[in-house]
Specification:
By secondary structure, the protein is of the alpha/beta class. It has 11 helices and 12 strands.
């Protein structure tokens, strides 16, 4: 790890990296995004993303981890940048852990790239106009844990390379088959593949546990502020709800997604 050390936060490369961390416009224009942490960087590379640079702090990173990352990312020395602790503190959310931030090239996440399993009825989550990166990240983390086959994000209001989303998903944004699309494109894609479409809503709904989720199933969630659009209400084969027994009338969307994902898991795995 004997590269020249970047010691100033005013270094042009550090300023560019900071902009990528802070601004979605910058990420879109440059086609790059930043990932912090050994696990997240490794999962991003395993998800087929191409690394363009690795910023690492020799005072923090384990030499073994550095060697493994260098091998995993296929980076030559010109893509490796050693940074001083004060600089790492500037570019990292978790300033005292792991010591690595990598840059990757963005890529489009398209419906046609999703490969559904041929040996079982697939389970897909559809998220309409999700705005909060933390909520989206939490849903992706749950989807990965529950073995969801794909996540479709319709008309997104946050970009998939937001650092808060990556952190909240603990890299689930890279381990899952994910596509972005319009609601119309997503509905057509689902119908062509004979999915039943379940919409999570309060009005005219049945309790979720009364619906058969062992079929090819897509569960659609709306925004916390506005709920589902009329478009998805019209597309649904069944409307489902989670009974609310207290004084409040709804759960956080990420909690709702967890409840419904694991109901599908329960129905599909009778031995659990």
């Amino acid at each position: 790890m004997g590269l020249e050390l970047i010691t100033s936060t005013q270094n042009p490369k550090i300023k560019d990296l900071t902009l990528l961390l802070e601004k979605s416009k910058e990420r879109r224009q440059k086609g790059l995004f930043a990932v912090e942490g050994i696990r997240e960087i490794t999962n991003c590379a395993a998800g087929g993303f191409t690394a363009s640079a690795l910023f690492y702090c020799p005072d923090i990173i384990d030499p073994k981890d550095f060697e493994e990352l260098q091998h995993t990312l296929h980076l030559e020395q010109r893509g490796l940048f050693a940074v001083a602790p004060n600089v790492y503190q500037k570019i990292a959310y978790r300033s005292t852990t792991e010591g690595a931030v990598a840059l990757f090239k963005t890529k489009e996440r398209k419906l046609e790239d999703i490969a559904l399993p041929g040996n079982k009825a697939p389970l897909v989550l559809v998220l309409e106009s999700v705005e909060k990166p933390g909520n989206l990240g939490a849903i992706l983390r749950t989807a990965d844990a529950a073995g969801v086959d794909a996540v479709i994000i319709c008309d997104p209001l946050t970009d998939l390379y937001n650092p808060n989303l990556i952190r909240a998903s603990i890299s689930g944004v890279f381990t899952l088959p994910i596509a972005t699309a319009t609601s119309q494109e997503a509905a057509q894609w689902l119908k062509e593949r004979h999915f039943q479409i379940l919409t999570a809503q309060l009005q005219d709904s049945k309790p979720y546990y009364d619906i058969d989720m062992t079929l090819a199933t897509a569960i659609v969630f709306g925004t916390e502020a506005d709920g589902l659009s009329d478009f998805w209400r019209e597309q649904s084969n069944a409307k489902i709800l989670i009974p609310m027994l207290g004084k409040l009338d709804s759960l956080n969307v990420s909690v709702s997604a967890a409840v419904l994902c694991y109901e599908a898991v329960r129905q599909r795995n009778k031995n659990l």
